[in-house]
Sequence to fold (665 residues):
Amino acid sequence: MARYFNGKEVELLAPAGTFEIFKEVIKANCDAVYFGGPSLNMRMMRKGYNFTLEQITEAVQIARALGKRAYVTVNNLLNEGELEEAADYLRFLESAAPDAIIVQDFAVLELIRQLGLSIPVHSSVMMNVHNIEMVEALKELGVTRVVTSREMDLASTRYLKAQTGMELEYFIHGDMCSVHGANCYFSSLVFGMSSNRGKCLKPCRWDYRVKKDGFVYPSEYPLAVKDMYMYEHIPELIHGGITSFKIEGRMRDTAFVLMLINAYGDAIDRYIADPVGFERAKDRDLLYENRKRDFSTAYAFGRPGLSNINKRYEGTGKFYSTGKVFSTPTEERELGEKRLNEIKEIWSEFSPSSKSGASRLELSVHVNNVTQAEAAMKAGADHIYLSGDVYEPDHAFTKEEIKQLAAQKGDVKLYVCLPRMMTELQFEIYDGLLSGEPLPIDGVVVTNLGAVRKFAGKGYPLVGDFNLNVYNKLSAGFYHNMGVTRLTASMELPAIDLRALLAEAPAPMEALVHGSPALMYMEHDLYENTEVFEPVGEEDNAHVANSVLVLKTDKGESPVYRDVHGRNHLTLAKELCLLPLVRELKEAGLEVFRIEGATYSPEQLATIITAYKSALNEPDRAEELFASLQPVYAGYTLGALQFDGGAAQANTALSALQAETAGQR
Fold:
């Protein structure tokens, strides 16, 4: 089955959480169905969901017999312990022959290449594809379809399609996130449950209070977005260059999914048959009456602002598909001696890394302004990263300021950082900066695949930022082969997985060891709450200046910084601090220790740098130095290192998969 409008294919893509649901959905008015297998996909929270290997094979055959397509999600990040499992799984999928797999981790592309497989690949929304350079890079890697960033508007998709010819897939209905794809680390650092690995506990749907300037604002659920709803905009989707219209809902029941398929399928057919006489609102009331939340068109027509935030059905704190509680506000775990000793014991079981004999450990510092940069240089930082997402009220680094800092830097290395999300205009702006007269810098910190492709040939060494989400040696090798000289480990890595990556990575590795990194990076502007609503109370911020917006629960306050591009960065309430683990990190093979310094005063930053430099020079003094360092914010946390990670689960899953695969032979 296939639909066409004026020669353009239009695919209605439906979800299925179980094989029983699939058998009903595939017979409905859709063109394709996507589903997950027994592991390595983004919907692993609900027991009894996803397909067995036997069911995957049968589902593909059923779809093909009906002239429809079947896509399998292999769309979470992989740790070292899951690479062998992934290889076996991909070999199986090659034989099962789905029409494509949907992928987030570049390790999967590397495995496909190494194994000589020919499985068609679609990029997941978790790749956060948002510019031409990223699409062109993926095309060169053999990817045949891109699921666009959730924040991409239809004017941009139309331009992207025209410029690249790539097939585009776009979410048209269902549960959305308020954070850029693969840029939410909240669940990992608070619960040890990664949203990039299919286990998000939804802190975005907690009951928060918004505070700023000493006032409290009435915004109980400021991160809880409405459900996507594009039913009345079929013409805009078709003419926006979208090939595949994607319904979210792998956790939904059969009746609900069939209702959506029937409504959207009918609308597409009616538009194709009679575009001028198309009635947009035919089944609007049906969909509205059966909604799980209120509706929004999200970013399809530009930034939606507060109209994208859901109020009516929040407050239950529950999965709407299961009735189970997501999670309740939870305090970030305090750094404790017991957990430090556990990590040291876990890591002592590993042999020292071959890289642990590095002659000199180095310290990098990410800064927000010139004064911080100068303080970091004087305090002994080895690498200074000039932010590409400068927090207000500071301004973006000018060329003159870069030259001014370069004149002072001596042996310190100076880098320009790129924004985490890069529009076409930002590519042109940075291309102008980096293609003109050579800058007196030592490298560029890259934040997305498109930036790697665009700037690898400009003559500046590239450093991969933490939001590249390097989780395993294969993704590290992928970026290294693309021209990235040093990579930053994902800050989601629990202790055992970080140790495994550092031991196996084929490139020099860096890791965040101190500061307030952004747990959520979002287009949504929380500051609008303070501009639209009248305050309902007065209360000072507990740990940051009142000029900084904070989201407050009874468990703590998370500062939110707005950058010069208007994007918001929600940070930890506590400070990440790995100072007492410097010796162990050195033995594990970490070469560059990174401080996120953008939120500190120059004096605070200098104190922190001095402590770390002393520890890097004398690792056996790390715990003594930690004891004398006082937190600036609400205390210290080990972040994701508080948690044990998934090595045991990975080994169990691998054994089960291998047994099932053997049974298929």
Summary: DSSP finds 22 helices and 28 strands in the chain. Residues 388 and 419 are 4 Å apart (CA to CA).
